[in-house]
Amino acid sequence: FSLFVTGSEGRLEQLIKTDQDNAMIYEKDEHRDYFVELGKAIHSNLLEIGFPDCKGGYTVGNDAWVKSVRDWVEEIRYWGSYLYPENILNVSIFIDMRHVYGDVSLFNVVQTFLFNLAENQLLFVGVLKDALRFKPPIGFGGRITKDKIDIKKHGISPIVMPIRALSFGYKIRAKNTVERIEELAKNGVISRELAKNLIASYTFLKRIHLVMQVEKIKKGQTSDEIDLDELPKIRAEFIKDALKFIADFHKKIEM
Question: 206, 178 in Cβ contact below 8 A?
Answer without folding.
Answer: no
